Amino acid sequence: MGSSVETLEFQAETRQLLQLVIHSIYSNKDIFLRELISNASDALDKLRLESLIDSDLEVDTSDLHIALAVDQDARTLTVRDNGIGMSRDDIVELIGTIAKSGTAALLEKMKQTKDAGAAQSLIGQFGVGFYSAFMVADKVTLRTRRAGTDSGTLWESDGEGTYDIRSVDGLDVGTSVTLHLKTVDGEDGAADYLAEWQIRRIVKQYSDFIRWPIRMATVRSDADGVTTHGVDTLNSMKALWARPRSEVTEAEYHEFYKQISHDRLELAETIHMRAEGNFEYEALLFIPSQAPFDLFSRDTKRGVQLYVKRVFIMDDCDALMPNYLRFVKGVVDAHDLSLNISREILQQDRQIRGVRRRLIKKVLGAVKDMQANDAERYAKFWAQFGRALKEGLLEDTDNTEALLELVSAASTHDPDQTTTLREYVERMKDGQDTIYYLTGETRAMVENSPHMEAFIAKGYEVLILTDPVDEVWVDQVPAFDGRRLQSIAKGQVDLDAPADEDGEGAGGSAKAEHEQDFATLLPWLSTILSEQVKQVRLSSRLTTSAACIVGDAHDMTPTLEKMYRAMGEQMPPVKRILELNPTHPLITALRSAHERNPDDPASAEIVELVYGGALLAEGGDLPDPARFTRLLTDHLARGL
Known about the structure:
Radius of gyration: 36 Å
Oligomer: single chain
Strand content: 15-25%
Structural class: alpha+beta
Largest sheet: 9 strands, mixed
C-alpha cells in the first residue's frame, strides 16, 4: 500500500538550474550515466560506513553492487543500488531544493555571462549531477527506501517545474533511478543508450575503477539460435592507485600504463603516492622510456587523468602537471572535489595548486634518484626528455635549482660523455668562479668555433649547448651553486684575470701590449665596418684564427635572433663586435699595409673578407655572398 500522490514545485532556483543543466551545461550527454553511477557508489559507501557505526542497523552488506537494466520495449534505462537509500525528506532536500548558500548569486552571475565555458565554470561549484538525467530522459522515476526504515518513497518528474512524490511499501533498501528515454530523433534522441555496447563503453570510460561491481543482465544467442541469459560485471574495479604499492606488481603497473598511454615500451620510472590530511588524494604517475613523436608539437596533449573518488573526470588535466613535464602520464584521484569541477576552477583552486607542487617535486625527485643511481639509464632518459625539462627553467622558477641539478650537457671535457653542472663545478680550476658555455646549432660547429681557442689552449672546460631552448634559459638563469654562467661568445674574455659581474675582463695582458700598435688601424676598421659592427677591438680569446664576432654581455645571440624572426617577431638587427687576433699574420699584414697606404682599396676589401670569414666561422649568413666570393677569388688569384 502507498499514500496518495503529492505534487510539489521545484524551488525557483532549482528550476532555473535544472534548465541550464539540461540545455546548456553538459556538451557530452554521456555524463548522465557517470553521474548516476557515482551517486549510487556514494550510497553504497555510506551504507557500509553506517553499518559499521550503528550495530543496530539491520542491513545486508554482503553483496553491495550497482545494477543497470534496459527495457527495450518500454525504452527505459534503470540504475539501481542497494546502498543507504533516501527518506522522503532526503529527496525533497536533495532533489527538490538546492540547499546551498549563494545559489541566487550564482544564478545571477550565470545570467550575466554569455560565455558557455564561464557558465560551466560557475555551475561546477554545485553538485547537480542528478539533473543531467533529463538530458536524455523526458521522465525520471526514482524509487528508494532508506536503511533502517520500513516505508519507501516514489519520486517522479518530467523536469519541467514540478515533481510527484508519494510513500510506497515493498521496496528493498537502496535506490533505483529509471530514465524514460526521449523518443525524438536527431539531437535529442537517446536510443543509443539502450544499446549494450554503448552502456559498456560509457562505464569503461568513466566508471571502470568504481570500487563496487557494476552489473548488467545480458542476453546472448549462439549460431544455432540458442539464447542464454547472464549477468556481466562491466567494470574492472582495479584502481591500482588505491592499493598499497607492496600489493601491485610491475606487470600490473605496466599493463595499466599501456591502457592510459597506448605506449607498449618499457617504463623508465613509476611513482605511486598517497597524500592524507586536509586534502586527500592518490597519484600513480609514469615516466616513459621514450619520448612520444609529438612531444614538441604545439598541439600535443599534456597533463594526467583526473578522477574524483575513482570516477573519471577529465583527460589531460593541465592544472596538475606543467607543460615541461607533459611526457608524464598517469592518474590523480582526489577525494574532495566536485564531479562537475571545471578546468577554469581547477586553475584557481588553492588545494589543486598544492597538489601540483607536490607532484612536480615527486617527479623531479624520481629523476634525480635515477641520475644518482643509474647513470646509463639517466643518460637515455635525458636524451629523450632533457630538452623538455630545460623548458622548466623558463616556466618554473620555484624549481630552478632542482632542474639545474638535472641538466646534462656535452662539454670539452670528454667528447664521448655528457656532464652535469655539478660535475663541471667539481672539475673547475682553482680560482675559477664562472661556468663557461657556448651555444650553437651543432656540436661540430661549437667545437670548431674560434671562441673556443683560448679556452682549449688554457685547459678551461666549456659546455656545448645545442638545443634551441639553450639559447633562452642560459640568459634567464644567472648562476648555479653560486657560480655565474657566462657565454664565451659574449663580453670581454681574459682567462688570466677575474671577470666582473657583467662578464667583462680586465682587458687582457696579452692584448694590452698590442693596443698601441693598433691605435691607427682599429678606428679605421670601425669606420669601414660601421654598418655591420658597433666596435672593432683586439681579442684575448683567439690563438689561431684571425678574427671572431662576439656580443656584449647582455646581447641577444644570432641564433636566438633567428628563432624570434622565424616565429614572426620583428627584431631589430643587433650590431655586434669584431675581435681581431693581434698576432695572426693576416691581421699584422693588414696593419702594415694600412700604415704604408691608408687609402689602398685592396686593404678595405681584405677587411670585408676578414669580417665575412668571421661570420662564416660562427655559422652566420653573409650579407652579400656573391661579393664575398668575388673578392675572395680576386685576392687568391693575385696571391698566385
